[in-house]
Amino acid sequence: MSQKARTRFAPSPTGFLHVGGVRTALFAWLVARQGKGQFILRIEDTDKAREIAGSEKHIQDSLRWLGLQWDEGPDKSGSFGPYRQSERLHIYKEWAETLVAAGRAYADHFTVEELNSLRTQAVQQKKPFLFRNHRPNNPPAWDGKLPLRFKSNPKSYQWQDEVMGDLSAGPESVDDFIIIKSDGYPTYNFAHVIDDYLMEVSHVIRSQEFLASVPKFLNLYEALEINQPKLATLPYVLGAEGRKKLSKRDGAKDVLSYKNQGFLPEALVSFLATLGWNDGTDQEIFSVYELVEKFKLSKVQKSGAQFDETRLKWVDGYFIRQLPIEELEKQAQDFWPPGAQGVNGQYRSSVLGLVRQRLKCFAELPELTVFFFKEPEAQKILDLYTHPQDKQLVKLKYQNQDYVKLLRAGLRELDQSSFDEEDLAHRLNNLLEKLESKPAILFPVLRIAVSGSQISPELFGTLSVLGKAEVLDRLKSAIALLEK
Ligand code: GLU
């Protein structure tokens, strides 16, 4: 790769950034970083009707959270600015005038009704509608009020895409398209070509939705006599069912919602990178340094990659387990359940040490740990005994007195314990033998009494952290409840 890769992420501020969109940014960022080049953030705000206030800030916040810092962009100086298209209208106008002067653009005088009727005719004749077949012989002079169309020179193209490989298209893919709209703003088709050229972008890395338009862009590069950058088309990120493109309408989540749920940015980056890319081995988790070193556009798969939130949680769980305890505490800070804030730090830290094995994102922290800070509700305990989930308990159909028997035996044994984890393990294993019970019976019975939950962390650790006095109290309360 050349030493000076310049890539850009060019979102339109039309809503929040979702995972599909931000994967494009990540790939472009990686190519810039590994080529020791620049990553540009360009805001493509030329469709004023679709613009949503606050989107640009949201896009910037999302990229910053993920660590995808840009070298040039609307909030930074750079020799290629401005980096918001709405601030570059004079530039597009000048280039448009050059095309007019060269006879390669003309004012489009058709009304919407006329255009619709031409389209209907084409449908009736079972022909594709191509505007170039209806070019006016004597177009009016372009006064900036009528839309301006590019006068194409249709032909076949063969080109190389960094991801998709060798591609080709026939002349039917090239048509006269609008380059400046009647409101004076350029279209995406025109503005991005000019900007990529002026900003010296080396690789245009973008989503598959623009692939069908590439022949038009190639035709425009020729008319403008500018070199085409390298093109890299990223296949769609598909929704969970794997058939449709992941879209906001189908529940694609805002990038920052993952931040709010306590996902780690490094986990999201690793997950996003492996949505449609791998390094040729089975490795599934990558640090950002490894990604910068190993990422290759040529190894991005050509077909869509399925978004799977369960895999994202698995990746996040992996990164959570790698965190040093102080960092873990810092990250967990905003996610503790009510009641945890007033409690001593050492206790909280032990709880965290215990649940980190199971934690898939920090938003799960309250559910997994609430019973360490608050006695479980009586009704919850009773419900769990009446409708246990553990298979063995379901089969046994225990009555209250059967539970009481086990709880009493547990209470007697634990009363003798130092509550050191090893001692707890030793005693409870002995008790299993004495009672001729099984871990899958006795342990959930104890677990329900102390945690009011079936999914608490590992039992001996849980008892040890809760402490002797609290555990004995909870066992006694459960017995009293069942005996009522
Ligand atoms: N503004 C386009 C979008 O948001 C960018 C496409 C491109 O990267 O060229 O989809």
Keywords:
3 domains; mainly alpha; binds glutamic acid; 484 residues; Arc Repressor Mutant, subunit A; two-stranded parallel ribbon; Rossmann fold; Glutamyl-tRNA Synthetase, domain 2
Description:
The chain is mainly alpha-helical and 484 residues long. It folds into three domains: 88-234, HUPs (Rossmann fold, 3-Layer(aba) Sandwich); 255-365, Glutamyl-tRNA Synthetase, domain 2 (Orthogonal Bundle), CATH 1.10.1160.10; 378-483, Orthogonal Bundle (Arc Repressor Mutant, subunit A), CATH 1.10.10. It is 46% helix and 8% strand. The chain contains 20 helices and eleven strands. The protein has helices spanning 19-34, 55-66, 89-101, 112-124, 188-198, 214-224, 255-260, 265-273, 288-294, 309-322, 325-332, 345-355, 365-373, 378-386, 391-396, 400-415, 421-435, 439-451, 459-466, 468-483; strands at 6-9, 38-41, 105-107, 148-150, 157-161, 165-169, 178-180, 203-207, 230-234, 237-238, 305-306. The strands form five sheets. The chain has a three-stranded antiparallel β-sheet. The protein has a two-stranded parallel sheet with strand order 1-2. Strands 5-6 form a two-stranded antiparallel ribbon. Helix 16 (400-415) crosses helix 18, helix 16 (400-415) runs antiparallel to helix 20 and helix 17 crosses helix 19. The model has no long low-confidence stretch (mean pLDDT 94). Glutamic acid (GLU) is lined by residues 10-12, 44, 188, 192, 206.
